[in-house]
Structures are given as structure tokens and as C-alpha cells.
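$ fold --in a.seq
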Amino acid sequence: MKHLLFPFILSSAVSFVVSSAALPAAEEELVKSKTVSSSDRVTVKTGNTDRLQFLHGGPGKELFKPYISILTTPEGRNILRDAPADHIHHHGLMFAVKIDGVNFWEERPGNKAGKEILDLPSFVTRSDIKFTPVGKEGKTELSRWRETMGGHLDWCNPAGEKLASEDRHIVFLLGGKNAVPDAVLVDWTSAFSPAPGRQSVKIGGNDYHGLGMRFHESMDKNGTFFSDNEKNPAEHLRGTENLTVCNWMAYTANLDDKPVTVAVFDCPVNVRKMRAFTMQDGKTVFAYLSATVNLHREPVTATHDKPVVFRYGVCLWEGRRTAEEVEKAYQQWLQYAAHP
């Protein structure tokens, strides 16, 4: 199953240069895409548009958790919100759990939270853009646009002691035959093992811990969650918060004045089937979506021989999509996950 664990084996920073000769204007703009690294972030750009931004803080300025702060729809509209006043620890698209009882999710003042520290020398990026000929008129079509980044993270307690090691790989896909047509797709993989010198590590958390996503403020109201498991009732937690066992969970709402749809996909390599945490009442509570695996009831143990893997897809469309469309996209992502 190794082919399902990591979308890429990253050994160096590589950039593939594509000739723009005789390409349509839209494809010429795509060829200008690039991944830009600075001291505290990595940004995937198309022309002047930031498509994805991964923040890590930089040397000596490590964040509590590296995360994706910008993730845009095909038209370039960001769906994420970072550190709102009501929950400053909500950072766009982020992954956080509890490690040996240490909380890596909340960041409230006085809270003894852990830190996910990225090992910058291990962090590399890779661009892979390819066009293929179509017909006899010299036309081309995008067959692949894939931006990959990944590296090693140390999960440390408040005293700085290393508890767990994570290998994180994030793949950004836009268009092409190996992605979902008319959609943006992010493939997120986190593989956990004990830190050096430790034999095992327990991964637990609250019912919302996992891969969490805080939406743009305009998406908080009048949105709708739906999944591939509409026949079975969700487990009600409290207020507007629910857990749903499913292969995918989608949310559709207006981003400013135009609708979008966002879905999270489960992967067969995960330690358990996804339980999607959702909350939203359209009035006073913000909308939130997390991919979880019941860690609040059943923590899992990672060893050096048996690392624990979390892998999910996040898919974005313009407009409102049906359950049939989301299911089709999920099946396409599963094919990609097996053969990236």
C-alpha cells in the first residue's frame, strides 16, 4: 500500500520548465505559475494570483502549527479564514490532535499547548506541469499541473521535548487528466511515528481533532452540509455539532456573492473510516468541517514498525454541486491516490 501513503517521494527541489510556444493564452498564464518560498511561507501562484499558501513561521519564529492559510477556487477566490477572534487557534486548513495527552489544537493564553515544528532543511517543493498535443492543428491541453511540498515535523511538548515525528506531504492539483475537472484538489498526507528514543506514541484528541477547516466568514451562513451517507443519521454531539461516518463530506455556501462547494475525501489507508465533524446553524455559529477518526473514544498508537497515517483529499468547485458530482470526483481522487 505504499503507493497510497505518499503522493510523491521528495528528494530534492525540482522545477519542470515548459515551453509556452503556440499555447493558448490561458495555458500561457499557467506556464507562468510558480512556487515561491520565503523565510516563513511557501506560496503557489498563477500569474499574480496566490493559489495556495503554506505558513510555517520560519527559523526561530515557529508557529504552533504549520498550515494552509490560502486555498482558492478555480476562479482564484480564497475559501479559508485564519485566526478569527472567536477562535484564534483556527488556522485555515490545519492538522492537529493530542499526542500523549498534550494538546496541539487550542492556543488559548495559559494553555499548555504543544508545537508542530517544521524541520526546514527537510522541506522541499516540486513543480510538475505538462501539456499534450490534441488533434492535428497544433493545439494542446493541460494533462498535469501538480505542485508538491513536504518535509519532517517534530511534535514537541511545551518544554520542547520531542514526542512524535511526522512526515507531511501536500499536493496541489489544478486541472489535467489526473485531477478532478473544473476543480482544485489538495492531497494531504501525515504519517506519524514516535520521536527518536521513544518506543511508541499515543494519538488522541477531542471529537473535532484531525484535519480541520475554518471557512471564509461569508460562508458561515446559509450553507448546507451533505455526504454520501445520508441514509444513516449523524451522531449528535451538542448544539449544531455532529459526527457523520462517511466516505466524503461536502459543504456548499455563498463565498461573498457566488456559491462554492468544498468536499473532504477519506482514504482507505487511514486507521479508521472518517467521521466528519460538522457545525453550522446559519445564524450565530460559524461553519466548520473536520476529518476525524474517533480519537476521543479510541486513541491509536504509533510505533516505528507501524506508523499511523492520515490521508485526505480536499476538493473545491465553483457553484453548487450535487451528491452525484461529488461522488464522481471522490472516485477520481481514489484513482489518483492509488496511481499518482
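$ fold --in b.seq
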Amino acid sequence: MAGELLLNIALLLMGAKVFGYAFTKLGLSTLLGEIFAGILFGAFLGLVPANNGILAEVAGIGALFLLFLIGLSTKFEEFKDNLYASTVIALAGAMLSLVAGFFVGLTIFGDPQTALFVAVTLMATSTAISLRTVADSGKLQTSGGRMLVSVAIADDVIALLALSMLGTYVSVGQVDIWKAVSLFFGILGFFFILLTAGSKAVGHVLHVSQRVKDEQILVSVAVAVVFVIAFISERIGIAGVTAAFLVGMAMNRSPLVEKYVFPKAKVIGYGFFIPLFMAYSAVAFDIGSFFSSIWLIVLLGIVAALAKVIGCGVMSGFARLSRGEAKLIGVSMVPRGEYTIIIANILHVAGLITAHAYTIVLGVVIFTILIMPLISRLLSLGANSDMRPVRNFHYKGWGIRSALGR
């Protein structure tokens, strides 16, 4: 059993890294390469089983590392100047995606619960892919790029709230209106505690740990804190990945993080756990369902893309952004990625969506990543010149520091 587990990990890990690198050379996202590795060794070759409980638990740590790293590099100062506008824009895109995804999902699956779950997976944008694409185009240092960073961070927070609500549903089996309202405020309270008192406590723990003559102890303590808080959060009905994100945000205020914790946690995460998680998430991919539902995937993918373009783009206009800035934000919010996969994986493992629905969601992730450049060309995004350069704006968050360094 142990030997088989090691072989499965080796296949997925090497496949994820090799194909991830190959896909970047083709100008595509690393995430697509990792998904391809899972499909190849799982659904296509059958070398890695989809129902391996131990492997699922090990791979699941990758989701914690991913959200922890996002939290470490998500600084409130990066978007506080655009807090109101960015939140409204992100919320418009998320809610339109939810509503449109639900009605299209209802048509596809014929089941309101499955349609709702699939719609929830489509609410969040892939921050890494969107910011990396904009950075490569040279527009991140413009007024539109700066607003995009704020919108992407707000979108992350909305995704976490949705993920927490979903995690509680998985834990208790149902969430009525009163429980939903209570949960919402409970989650906000959890956010507040971790980002205030928790930030001071974690900073103190790191400061004390620095006194030990061991250069690795800071990252060890940081990861241990993530695991403990994630355990506690799951005990009270909040998704562990949400806690990992919040611990990262609470921890990033410490001056020790950027030099000692983030680089080493990033090596552990992107060197092992995160690519393993992404590849394993695609092992359950059903090739038969994919080809039999290809037009449904395209339909749902187009609706998901348009929901972000219209929701975020139009609301950007109401926020008094220029036409070019509105286009940039709307198009950049199209690709789905890490959050969609994490949420879909939770639902699939809990038995709340079928392998068929899970495959369609993964298909939509692939479709929205591939369609983003096409939408950019159709809207002539590269021809816009009404975005002002922003001096002294150097975003060091998740999208650039993490995605470019994979």
C-alpha cells in the first residue's frame, strides 16, 4: 500500500511539474498542465485511482498551502484606497456568475441543488492567471491595473465567504435562512479575530521562535499554526482553507514573513503540495462525460465568461472608470482556476455533485482560461490608451510573486 502511494505521488508530482512547464512554454497557464497530468495518469492511463483516501488527504494539504500563500501576499494596504468600488465590482461579477450559472446549470442537470453547487464554483476568478496575463501585457502599472488588483483581492474574499458557507453546509447537511445569517456574521467575527488579535499573537509567536538557533524554525512554526487553526476552524464548521487564508493575512504583517517564511513556504507549496493537489483534483475527470458534454461545457463556459465581463465591466463603468479600464477589468476576471477547483473538489468528495458535474466544472475551468485571450482581441483590449500610468505602484501580491515564480 505504501509503495503504491509513493508511486502515485511520484507520477502526479512529476507529471504536474513537467506538463506545467511545457504548457507555460506554449504560452498557457501552469494550471492547465497540472490538470492535464491528472487526467493523463488518472482517467486516461488509469495509473492513479480516484478513490485513494490517503492520497486524497495528502493532496488536500496543497489547498491549505495555496490559500496560506495567497493570504501571506494579500495586504489590506494594496486595496484600501479602492475598497468600496472594488468590492462592488467584484460582487457584481460574482453574483451575476452565481445567478447565470444556476439557471444554465438547472437546464443542464435538471436538479436545483446540483445547479446551485455548480454555480457557486463559478463565482471566483483565478487571481493568479488574471494578474499574470495583465502583467505580461504591461498594463498592471496603469490605473486600470491598480484597480484590477483591488477587485481581484475583493473577489478572493467573496470566494472565501462562499467557501465557508459551503463548508458549513457540508458539515451540518443544511443551512436554513437563520443559520445562514448567523453563519455569515460568525465568519465575519472569525475574520475579525484572526486579523486583529490573531495577527498580534502570530507575530509574537514568530518573534519568539526567531530566538531559537534554527534557520528553519520560522517556517515550521508558521505551517504548524496554519494546521492548528485550520483544525479548529473545521471543528466549528468553517472550511480549513478559509482559516489558512486568514492565518496568512494575519501573519503577513510581521517583518519576518517576507524574508524567512514566504520564500520557504512557497518552495514547500509549489515544489510539492500545490501541484500534487491540482493534479490529483483532475484524476476523477471523466473523459466520456467530457466528450459527451462538450457543447454543454462550452455553453456554461461562455455564460460564465460573459457574467464576469458584463458584471465587472459594466459595474466598473458605474464606478466612473474609463472605458479601457472597464474592459481590462471585465476581461481579466474571466478565467476560473484555483478557487473553482477547490470548491468543486470539496463538493465532489462530499458526494454533493457527481463525477459528471465535476468533469463539466473542470471543463469550464479549461475553457475560460483558453478563451480569455480571444475575448481580449474581440474587445480590442490592446488598443485602449485611456489608462493612466501609475507611478510607485509595485504590486507584490499573490498574482505576481507566486504565479510568475511557479
